[in-house]
Request: fold
Amino acid sequence: MSDEWGVRLKAYEGRPAAVAGVGKDPVNAPMIRHWCEAMGDTSPAYEGPDAVAPPTMLQVWTMAGLGHTGQTGHTGETGRTGRTEAYDELLALLDEAGCTSVVATDCEQEYLRPLYPGDEVTFDAVIESVSERKTTKLGTGYFVTTRMDVRVGAELAGTHRFRILKYKPAHQKPKSRRPRPVVNRDNAGFWDGVAQHRLLIQRCTGCGTLRHPWLPGCNACGCPDWDTVEASGEGSVYSYVVMHHPPFPAFTPSDHAADAAGPYAVGLIELAEGVRIVSNVIGVPYDKVRIGMPVQLEFHSYDDELVLPVFRAREAVS
Reply:
């Protein structure tokens, strides 16, 4: 890539990325409920006759949904996203420059007006900036930032800035070690427990509420003090997805389905204690995993340093 690409890309700054987009659904109680259940948010502000939508759902109301067939235009079903030819041209130009891979890097949101069930959302977006050429561990490419203005009628409800990196992948020697979890001061106790083959759940000493993942304070009463209880290891599959990805050198085939090169199941496991944890479901083929399936905690050592909790289907427990 040469500086010529940067000049051509910069020319797209200020051009529209979406025009007259229309939310596929109005703000509605079922989607709010599903969001709150998935996030574990029990705030009373999000239910009842005076409910508002969680502010962090701002982008949700602008999404086109799965299976949509059109991206551009301004009328009809294919035009509901309002996506412009200028944005498509920018992405095509980046592809031409060899930046064929993409990763979302971050987003920023500003909330100006509550959204209520029944509100019809419209939106416009602009290509706010295209960075100079950057070299990252992933590869060399450009950061593209779009700013979306979300409205109800003529009233601005919020703004959503979304940043992606379009890059040419670096040619790196594959690492043999499995990726490490991010350990910080808030979750170090959890990983210390895992290293000892103990699954520890935080418990608020103020109200007794159990919580996972680990947090610096209680999301029920706000108390910063806590202790832990050890999970029994029994649970069931609350929900799951099947992951499909190309073979990755750090993952080697074994009895553990999460290590296999092919598809594997990632479950949201509801523990007997009432909290939920994301982990792999092992011991049965991925297409045999079912919601409600009983599972049992196991700890698997991947190398001299890394131990992870996984859950084996009880029908596969000997």
